[in-house]
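Supplementary notes for students who missed Thursday's class. We covered one full example, reproduced here. Read the sequence, then the structure, then the short commentary at the end.
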Amino acid sequence: MLTFRKSLVAAVVLITFVVLLRSAHSSPSAEPAVLNTEETVYDTSQAVDEPPTSQKEDVQQQPLRPPPTAPLRERLRYQFPYDLESRFPAYIWQTWKYTPASMWFAEDLRPAEASWTELHPGFVHEVIPDDTQRHLVKYLYGSVPEVFEAYDSMPLPVMKADFFRYLILLARGGIYSDIDTYALKPAADWLPRELDLARVGFVVGIEADPDRPDWHDWYSRRIQFCQWTIQSKPGHPILRDIVAYITEEALRMKKKGILKEGKMDKTIVEFTGPAAWTDAVFRYFNDPEYFSIEPGSTHNVTYEDFTNQQDFKKVGDVVVLPITSFSPGVGQMGAGDLDDPMAFVKHDFSEACHACGQAELYTPAPGPKRSSYGDLGKPIALRGSGSTTAPTKTRVH
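Structure (token representation):
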């Protein structure tokens, strides 16, 4: 038989349980809106020696590892998965013959290198020397050995420098920028504050927009995308494609015995440089795997979508910046000055970089654009990147 004291205790326990249950299901208070700042846009928690994303523990069911005989792109997709909704990693990657701590580091490059650290205090800023790049590629791509084989077989330093920027961004993401570039604004200010960065995974700028009839005498593509500064989340399909393309072409030429200086059947600009890079970007824009394209449609994204561009444009998860953003002050092709609000990075085209084959030498119009890549040659017709006249697609906005 229940006593009065036992009944009272039971009532208190019951009331406490009900109160706790209701509080657990109460609605959380609304959170204030958050602007795009370095803390909210970039993931500063990552370390350089963090294992690849595919090796992290995850409570969700993981796809089976593809066999070694699977297509290269499939294995790269597995090893470096793409998470659009993740934050941009807070990495800045640069390459040079020596680290800034070395007495051999070129003095004229120190102000440019320091500008990236000064404007990005919360970032991991790494200048990878030549003798370290090989070991890093071997570590990151150990599960995809043909990628390392292709890198290790490159006959010229400029080709390795080109390839390395794509490799490091595919594996780790962040920002790659040539050692002779100056950061004019922090990366958190590159994109509009109102843009949902959970829907942006890649940022690229326009390098050249030669709106003249003889453009093919000076450039390899009617619109060329910049490769001296690139921002990406790890695993982006554009990077996966360019890495696979360069790997396949390198091993093809190696098998034929022509992966040697002066023997290759591709110019460097078409193999690892701006032409190959521009083609990869346009291939992505016109890939039905990632964009809704009606069956039988001939409409595609072309240079016409970006010529005379003055502001940013978004194509799917890619933001394309105008020529002013990464090429301010060049005095041609509609580029603004260094004090333009859209000027983010200045490329100095250092003689030190040019001497070691890691930079292009810019000659303003009407003279030709010369390059450490050698003769650009005639453009290769490719859907979207050359002087095509296909209608534009409405997804560019």
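Commentary. The two ends are 77 Å apart (CA to CA). Residues 64-355 form a domain with the Spore Coat Polysaccharide Biosynthesis Protein SpsA; Chain A fold (CATH 3.90.550). If anything here is unclear, bring it to office hours.
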